[in-house]
Predict the structure.
Amino acid sequence: MPEMSLAPALSLLAAFGRTPTLPLQTLWRTTGHRFRPPHVAPFIPRIRRAQEAVIAGGEILPAEGVTLTCEQHRGGTPTLILGGFVPDGPEQVYLLRSFLIKQGSLYYAHYPDDGFSSELIFAQLEDLVTELATVHGQPPVIFAVSFGAGLVLEWLKRLRRSGRTPAIRGIILVSPVACAADLLVPGEAKPTTLLGRAIKPFVGSTDRSDRGVTEKSRAIFTKMFEAGAQNKEALRGLLTRQELHLLRAAVIGTLQRITPAGATARVQALLQLESPSSYFCPTLLPLTEAPTLILYAEKEESVLTRLAPSRFALQTAHRAYFPRSACKTISNRRGSPVQHASLLFHCFNFLPPISAFYRGLKKRNALKAA
């Protein structure tokens, strides 16, 4: 199939800083969807022990956890995707999908619109990872973006603290936001970043009915998406006009569905996350021995603060947290600079290290089987 031969070529060209011709990019993208159209269906795990224990406490409702969908495919390495605040997982990796489905099934975590419980979500992660590893015999790769990466770091820390080890094949963290100080400078009156301005009104507030604050935050997130979508020249090589229209509708639709209660709960969850620098100690590290890839964008400063503590910890000491890890900065030598978690508008800049990471997992698996 054309997709099978074009993807490695595009990855190689991007690795050498050469942007493929726009028709070639579009052909690779649309071919992937034509031969492997998405068939995403709700997924109800068989294993529910951890989440049922959380719900049994009576303080957390099932609706405060994630809902799961799955795109079943052949391949021995499933990928579990957790997005940032927005968009949802399917939109987050829309252009990487053609590559990811060749590795195995895709599992998308959709955050709730009207609430948020980190405790329940961590339990759901534990149940799903256990099921994939024990029932299906396929430990997953966890692919987490921005706020989702912060959730994964907190989940791993808590498991480590309780003496448990998750059965995961690998981890990819894209532009991790692992604590509030990554977005807000302590004591700063007015945030300097767009995302900081979106969450600042929620900090210190437990009012879950203030629609005015939520609308302002929606406007900021919309502005961030539209800023990327204004790069018409780049988008012509990535999406057809209809696809861009549908994708925009999905992203804006997600923003509109989040209620004031849901927005407040998400920010409160962020405020509870600990910076990796706060648990830099031998009793909690390493978090996991699983191979890990950490990717930052060349222009993170539009979202992360200049002295973001999580970025400092992971860039300078990532092997203390993940002994089998690599930390890379993704840049674009031609065209617009790569922005925070820009997997959509800079897909082909992120693809080479992600592709190499999965190849490494296959080689390790082959060596174990030999």
Remarks:
- The chain is about 45% helix and 10% strand.
- Residues 347-369 form the longest helix (23 residues).
- The longest strand covers residues 292-297.
